[in-house]
Amino acid sequence: WGVNPNIIDRYYHWVDLNRFKPAKRKPNDKLNFLFIARLIHQKGVNIIVKLAKLFPLYQFNIVGNGPQYHYLLSLKLNNLKTFGDIPYSKLHTIYQQNDILLFPSLYAEGWGRTAMEAVACGLPVLGSNLGAIPENLSPKVSILFKPTIKNFQKNIKKVILLKKNCRTYALNNFSTKNFNSLLNLYKSLQN
């Protein structure tokens, strides 16, 4: 674009780290995977369904609504639970009841607040390497790849090892200091 890269600053989003944080849970033998999105093909809903069929001992929890909602209900898989829409004010409790966030987008997503909130709650991310998602997440808290069922199968057991890194990563990268940086920029432009 002909813009000098030395004069470009990046400003990152933030999450409420007082609300989005890990919670104490009773130990559970079953891994709980979470998917939060509008239930459309482009978000990778079919990948979630295939994973639920391939891994019947894991629990797959889906939050959201959209054209594929009734299809998911019709499947009647014992390890696939569909919650529909959850009010944003209660969403942190859903993250806290799960172990891993699945982010199988088939298109180049924007920033990915869902991934940030999940990491802040202690959930590593297993998902797509498209769009801004890789810029948002480090390999310390995520395993990202081309969104195919084979790649998810290959990495599904590895991602749990990243759980221990999530909260520290969120504190260092998703805090309100990001807001303050942006606010300071706006203030400097007023002068």
| Total count of domains | 1
Number of strands: 6
**CATH fold call:** Rossmann fold
Number of helices: 8
- The percentage helix is 25-40%
| Beta content | 5-15%
Query: Would you tell me the structural class of the helices and strands?
Result: alpha/beta
CATH class: Alpha Beta
Give the integer mean of the pLDDT values. Answer: 90
Shape: globular
**What is the CATH architecture assignment?**
3-Layer(aba) Sandwich
Strand order of the main beta sheet, please? 3-2-1-4-5-6
H/E order of the elements?
EHEHEHEHEHEHHH
Q: What's the helix and strand layout?
A:
Elements: E1 32-36, H1 45-54, E2 59-63, H2 69-75, E3 80-84, H3 91-96, E4 100-103, H4 113-120, E5 125-128, H5 133-136, E6 142-145, H6 149-155, H7 166-173, H8 177-190
Helix pairs in contact: 4-7
Structure, explained:
With about 190 residues, this protein is α/β, with parallel strands linked by helices. It has a single domain (about 15-190), classed as Glycogen Phosphorylase B (Rossmann fold, 3-Layer(aba) Sandwich). The protein is about 35% helix and about 15% strand. The chain is built from eight helices and six strands, in the order βαβαβαβαβαβααα. Helix 4 (about 115-120) crosses helix 7. The longest helix has 14 residues, at about 175-190. The model has no long low-confidence stretch (mean pLDDT about 90).
